[in-house]
């Protein structure tokens, strides 16, 4: 008997609710129905959206099964009815849905599996936050935990996965227009889950998850088809680690390469030999492994004796597009003795993979000045000159002795002369003189009669030997002068680059002193450099001083600072360059001092501005209540025939004026404490409901003025109850004052991650973006045309109080018009104690 074909599964994946998954599923169902396919709606959740509901018209629907749970009638997908109907295609919405207790399966995705087992194709929808492996990531992004999840394997096993994508701002616009949620849920949704940053991160998460799925399918296809070549469908960078000190440099370079393309992947691999005898540092490898993980990459360790082969094989198996290796740490002599090394072999075998060989010294960015002391030619070139003389002198003698004749003496002399010139060009004067003497003796011993004796029988032979030495010395002098000039030019170039960099640091002014101290240490090859004040305080330092105390101190201009150099003593050219650096360093110190003075002057100017505003406020805002109080008290004292009503009115006027005066003075004292940074905060665990209700009562607002949407499940927050109440009073008073008549101010509380948010939402004119910073400045009154509304300190105080409690006060647009003020405060931890 032939087994029945299992139904295919097509999943429409969305980054968030409202992107149009259900709409697209129904639209696909209508297209298939028009093509003559047998399509039914097994279950669909329209959530009251008119456009989604309109898509269901004309599509056959299998009636749902009704189940009673705790006295409530609920409807669920009827699996048996769908299987009995046996359509070609069933449309099943919300794959991660949890069924009512007592259903055939606990989860809807299990219902879908049963439908597919009956040979019915299924088109379904799911959001990225419901995928099990991404659930924790989504909670970290949005601050909301999803209770309904679906195993990754269920979605990955789908025959087709399609992302239903919508730009984050477009989704927010749809939400504001009421196309996703009802009006009463729009503000909370936009302010919490549907923030622009949240939606952007969720969108990227969905696309990357699908990219991983596509990549897995691609690997399976290549394995099934036996395709071994690399398909560069995605940027993957493999970094080869040896356990050496260059590992960190290689990893950071690889991470930068991977970051150049969206979805780039970083893989680090360390290859160990089977005998375990490779020179590696476990501690360094552990640190590099932690660095890989912090950079978002993965660490792999494999065993193989053929290191280049194992490395290339791993890179090809990972479909790598880039391979990063370090330049060999071997010296030239070792490289000459042991061959080109691993790098050349990796390049030869890499095929389509690009190989980057990173030079560690270049990556470190060290700048050192070439030294011009001692001989112009280094000892390496001199040793090479001696080696050439010792190697090619006997070889030349053997060749010429084998083919000698009475007429060949001239050629033999010129050949030895050429050897002397070559040695002089390579090694300078010492090996050239050695080659001249050696070749003269050899010429006399082998080619001048009597043979095989070192006898100078003729004065011309002595002259020839002398000419050999003179020619060698002359050529050596020319070579030495050329090398000295080249080294001088190289040093001059390095000095110019150093001075240009130092001058640039002074002009930029950002960390100029520290940058110049670091440049000085690197330029002169010192172990440590410190800049000290006259009192011994360290202004800047780089490196570590030597234990033997070898230090040189240099005074830095009129600043009375001292530059302490730890290392070998500097020669005369280096001291001249150091004088130039010290002059620039003195200018940098002076520049830093001027910047600090400018900051102090700016602070004084700002203080003076505040003082001027304060005096202006005192002259205007305090005059009215003070004058009213004086007039009322004077009337009470001077009149003896006042009626009880007149006396009561004067007392009320005096009481009101003095209360207003007390409030203004209190605000002035508070703002002065905030400006001085001496605000006293007594932080404790508290319920946000208490300060909100106290603020509403203090302002005398009723249900017609304020709508409360307080989250009863909001955890306790950490704040000062008195200061928090002042913040809410000030913000709520502003919101009520600017709200149109007949509209209510909405006050809501919610949790977002590890913080609580109190949102005060009005439907007024709002505040333009360019004015939002100025409304928090002292003595600013937005939209007021008189001086009867206070000193303009309310929002300034509110922000200062909020920041003093470790929170923030930020303005946002209210969807549909108005201003939303968000008071964000930290949630109290389980072990949080009261602080003061």
TrEMBL record:
Keywords: ATP-binding, Kinase, Membrane, Nucleotide-binding, Phosphoprotein, Transferase, Transmembrane, Transmembrane helix, Two-component regulatory system. It comes from the Bacteria. The keyword Oxidoreductase does not apply. Residues 617-829 form the Histidine kinase domain. It holds the Pfam family DUF4118. It comes from Microbacterium galbinum. Its main location: membrane. The keyword Membrane applies. This is histidine kinase. The chain crosses the membrane at residues 383-403, 409-426, 433-454, 460-479. It catalyses: ATP + protein L-histidine = ADP + protein N-phospho-L-histidine. Its EC number is 2.7.13.3. It is an enzyme of class 2 (transferase). It is found in: Cell membrane; Membrane. The lineage of its organism: Bacteria, Bacillati, Actinomycetota, Actinomycetes, Micrococcales. It is a multi-pass membrane protein.
